[in-house]
Amino acid sequence: MKSFMTKFFAVLALVSAATAFTVHADAKPRRLKALVVSGQNNHNWPVSHLVLERILEQSGLFEVDIALTAPAGGDMSGFKPDFAAYDVVVLDYNGDRWPAETDAAFLDYVQGGGGVVVYHAADNAFADWDEFNRIIALGGWEGRNEKSGPYCYLKDGELVLDHSAGPGGSHGAQREYAMHCRNAKHPITKGLPDNWMHAQDEMYDRMRGPANIGDLLYSGMTDPATGGSGREEPLVFIVDYGRARIFHIMLGHCGPTAENNPAMQCAGFQTLLLRGTEWAATGKVKQPVPKDFPTTTSVSLRRDYRAPAE
Ligand code: ZN
Q1: DSSP state of 251
Q2: What's the whole-model pTM score?
Q3: Each residue of 222-276: pLDDT tens digit?
Q4: 79 C-alpha to center of ligand 1: Å?
Q5: How far is the CA of 174 from the centre of ligand 1 (A)?
């Protein structure tokens, strides 16, 4: 009898352990591994890369590492991130070229089906690196012109390519502006309002490049009265680049401090960043629409970058 009871409890313990393990695994899925690349930028990268890290980490979905390059003009030979160890690489970098070995490792990662997020001025980087320009689809500044590819904007609701000569990349004065959804069925946009107000930010325009946009998700209408192109410009899109999952978001100009940073504090920007990063990492989006998402008439700021508790 004693032996039977011992066996019985031993089996019960095993079953309980298995059940406990299952529950535990369901409750806490593996966090996705994200690498934020920064260290040089014509923007306020010492703030922006930490804000990106904070937004991603606070969601509970991502475990974030940061790879910083040497300062401008410095010795880049030691910059060799292990891209392959990550589910997604978030680019917050615009500066000196990386070592050839690092370029090759990045291309291996992307062409092998890696996930990439191109954030704001990361699309200014590497104007003379053709493959990088195919990874971002559209870029600006840094000498870009008609040799970089056509302008790409919307006319009568369709993307058009305009090969006329001129510099690539500009923006009008910062302002609040409406975001126009162009594909409500994509996992990143699904459930979000068709039009919503983004907090004060730059709106990139006159961008040029190979223009290999896969899915256009959002566009915005520039304001010619404050220096804009006068066109409806693509602002958030998926890049068509082989097996890679590339999410390009032109929003999110970084303010002078983490506290005075409306474009990155916008709940809409943060929602797109989080959904786009999850999609780039996995091809899916499991995040619900947050309660504080902006509406068609009003912006919504998360001053501490944290979504409201459910
Ligand atoms: Zn900017």
Answers
A1: -
A2: 0.91
A3: 999 999 999 999 999 999 999 999 999 999 999 999 999 999 999 999 999 999 9
A4: 25
A5: 9
